[in-house]
Write a structure and sequence with these properties.
It holds the Pfam family CDC50. It is built from 8 helices and 9 strands. The chain has about 325 residues and is of the alpha+beta class. The chain folds into 2 domains: about 30-60 and about 285-315; about 60-280, no CATH class. The strands form 2 sheets. The protein has a 5-stranded antiparallel β-sheet. α1 (about 30-60) runs antiparallel to α8 (about 290-315). It is extended, with a radius of gyration of 32 Å. The protein binds 2-acetamido-2-deoxy-beta-D-glucopyranose (2 copies). One 2-acetamido-2-deoxy-beta-D-glucopyranose binds near residues 167, 211, 264, 265 and 266. The site of one 2-acetamido-2-deoxy-beta-D-glucopyranose has 4 residues, from loops.
Length: about 325
């Protein structure tokens, strides 16, 4: 081998770092250690998994898909004509049965399926500057095609996300007694106080020939338009739930809830599904069996591995090798240095 002599490699400083003599953790994976570690992980994870699963099972959830059922029988073949006809009454009533006692607060969500709020051009079609303060009103470049009206005045809030705001509404009653829906505090406080200005009022919104969704009251500042704030926090997956409001009384088992839906929102043109969800919560949040299952699976696997190692260790313990084998002058493999 030939190396260029002029390379002038410097000898490294003689320190613990360059000589790789720093203190280090070198665990010796003896059978006892490995078995104890796996058993310990298993014993921690299984109770956590059981607790999560139990909490998730206690959550009471009512899910009702209504996008098909809310179109009258004789219009089922042409749902699009139905939803686009503004003279047709879109009111629809559904009856829901409370399966078990539902403790307040009961969260009301709408769930959309096959709605890609994560599409690149859709996600970018908004102006955060404009939403935040009145000075940014004319900042609408990112909002096209919903930036300005045909006569050139700015739209506030601009962009496709705001334009396509969900606009179905729900009313609830039990035995003709109305259940109040609390629509306050459904948005994140960080959004309300830092992203949506209290001096920004809707302007020229939904005034074009194509109406994409809900309208906004132009005398209420954006920071208090919580439905809009919730909608503008775009979902990452095509099936998502968004908070609509809260019912703040307990619902007794077997009670029948009458839901009055204004079925306005057009998901029919792209085959989207709409569901209404009523759900209680527990300490893990809403209904979610996955977390508990994941803990149980992992804990179970760890215990299984621990048990396997114990068996192997009992049946065929591994004998310690002869350490003198390692010394340099015994070189049975005959490697040359
Ligand atoms: C809209 O609905 C009304 C009442 O049902 C009906 O008379 C009219 O023809 C419909 N319009 C269209 C465009 O389908
Ligand atoms: C609701 O949104 C749809 C579009 O999805 C629109 O056609 C309709 O006019 C809107 N209705 C109301 C009452 O805002």
């Amino acid at each position: 081998m030939w190396f260029p002599v002029s390379l002038n490699l410097k000898k490294p400083v003689n320190s613990k770092f360059t000589q790789q003599e720093l203190p280090a953790c070198k665990p010796i994976l003896s059978p006892g250690w490995v078995i104890t570690t796996f058993a310990f992980i298993g014993l921690i994870f299984i109770p956590v998994g059981l607790a999560s699963l139990f909490a998730s099972q206690r959550v009471v959830e009512i899910v009702d898909r209504y996008d098909v059922a809310c179109v009258p029988e004789h219009l089922q073949d042409d749902k699009l004509a139905y939803i686009q006809n503004s003279t047709v009454d879109k009111t629809c009533t559904r009856k829901l049965k409370v399966p078990r006692l539902m403790r307040s607060p009961i969260f009301i969500y709408y769930e959309l399926e096959n709605f890609y709020q994560n599409h690149r051009r859709y996600v970018k079609s908004r102006s955060d500057k404009q939403l935040r303060s009145r000075e940014g009103e004319s900042d609408t470049e990112s909002c096209s095609p919903e930036a300005k009206t045909s006569n050139g005045s700015v739209i506030v809030p601009c962009g496709l996300i705001a334009w396509s705001m969900f606009n179905d509404t729900y009313g609830f009653s039990i035995n003709s007694k109305v259940l109040d829906v609390n629509k306050k505090d459904i948005a994140w406080n960080s959004d309300k106080y830092h992203k949506f200005g209290s001096d920004v009022y809707p302007k020229n919104f939904q005034s074009g020939p194509f109406i994409g969704g809900g309208k906004l009251n132009s005398s209420i500042p954006l920071s208090e338009q919580e439905d809009l704030i919730v909608w503008m926090r775009t979902a990452a997956l095509p099936t998502f739930r968004k908070l609509y409001g809260k019912i703040e009384v307990d619902l007794e088992p077997n009670e029948e809830i009458m839901v009055t839906i204004h079925n306005n929102y057009n998901t029919y043109s792209f085959g989207g599904k709409k569901r209404l969800v009523l759900s209680t919560t527990s300490w893990i949040g809403g209904k979610n069996d996955f977390l508990g299952m994941a803990y149980l699976t992992f804990g179970g696997l760890s215990l299984l591995i621990a048990a396997t190692f114990i068996l192997i260790h009992l049946i065929r313990p591994r004998s310690l090798g002869d350490p003198s084998y390692l010394s340099w002058n015994k070189n049975p493999a005959g490697y040359s240095n």
